[in-house]
Amino acid sequence: MIDKDILKLAKLCEHWANHNESHKENYEKWRKIAQEKGLESIANKLNQAIEMMDKSTQFLLSAKEELS
Fold first, then answer.
1. How far apart are CA 10 and CA 8, in angstroms?
2. What is the total count of domains within the chain?
3. Which residue range forms the structural domain that includes residue 26?
């Protein structure tokens, strides 16, 4: 018998990972704008946020795989 909560959690992990990707695209867009405006400190912070988003996505997908 399949545990509904575990199934739902696996689907949520995948959903959250996909949602992270849409946020990441927006961060990348605004990082480029910050760079064009000479706001290197801001661009660097956005780059760090992008890197953290990638790590978050990796953890979420790993959790999904473990649940599947």
1. 5
2. 1
3. 4-67
